[in-house]
Amino acid sequence: MATDFKSLPVIDISPLLLKCDDPDMAEDAGVTEVVRQLDRACRDAGFFYVQIGHGISEVLINRVREITREFFKLPYEEKLKIKMTPAAGYRGYQRIGENVTKGVPDIHEAIDCYKELKQGEYGDTGKVMEGPNQWPENPQEFKDLMEEYIKLCIDLSTKILRGISIALCGSPYEFEGKMAGDPFWVMRLIGYPGAPFTNGKPENDIGCGAHTDYGLLTLVNQDDDKTALQVRNFGGDWISAIPILGSFVCNIGDMLKILSNGIYESTLHRVINSSPQYRVCVAFFYETNFDAVVEPLDICKQKYPGGTGGSQVFKRAVYGEHLVSKVQTNFAM
Ligand SMILES: N=C(N)NCCCC[C@H](N)C(=O)O
Ligand SMILES: O=C(O)CCC(=O)C(=O)O
Ligand SMILES: [Fe+2]
Description:
By secondary structure, the protein is an alpha+beta fold. The protein contains 10 helices and 18 strands. It holds the Pfam family 2OG-FeII_Oxy.
């Protein structure tokens, strides 16, 4: 359950990265300390910063945002060449206002890409998301750079989840195998227009309305010179996720909330860009297997703070169905 946090914890995960291929990692003192901090952060805020030491170079982190910014500067006709449609598996470019949160159009544009699914792999549910990703033709570098970045984000997320798995269950591999051994992933390249000024004051548009993320873990790579992402604490205050150079903002999604039986929070957050400048964010969502049946882990049922031994507080969900229902209700096209 979220607390009344006033800022988001910062975690240096390098001791975990150093040991995370060692099956005995949980016994290492450095790992134990990282696990303690992850556990605290996931309980209190559902959000934390992963500080330098995460293993993805600042040059690459910045480059994926810059190349994204260049794309959004193109004329609309150019961007439409990779237009997102239901027939394209909801992959590609989505213009401002086409993403909707609780019925209100968001003031952002985006390119969405997803792990590519084999035809017929997941029946009718999987079919909705089938299709090749649509990448801009120019520059040539775009696709290669993004694919390299995706690979590194998958790797980093797997490692962070080993730490979270130790925190919840004692063993590092709870989120591998049939839960997330073949993780689905989503990458959204997002652009938020600068706030329009009327009578000398910025008019705050909602770049993205209050929502929770759908999967296990999100890695947010945001512009480092604008504060726009806000996280809601238990008391209902919005706490800014002020950018920290070279770090990711990391947060828990709905599937991890269910698996942990609510011990960890998938915290509400929103985006308001009140800067006059265009803001870019690259959000990487690491999810369970597409067909994973997600329900509270036994150990989390026993640990549930409500204390009614063996109680299951959260309902089961099938990840792919959760995603498809979100896409079909929140994408207006
Ligand atoms: N976790 C993901 N994929 N985030 C995308 C933005 C969420 C906002 C969306 N309109 C919604 O209401 O869910
Ligand atoms: O723009 C951001 O900082 C976060 C975006 C976000 O929350 C999302 O796409 O789910
Ligand atoms: Fe989000």
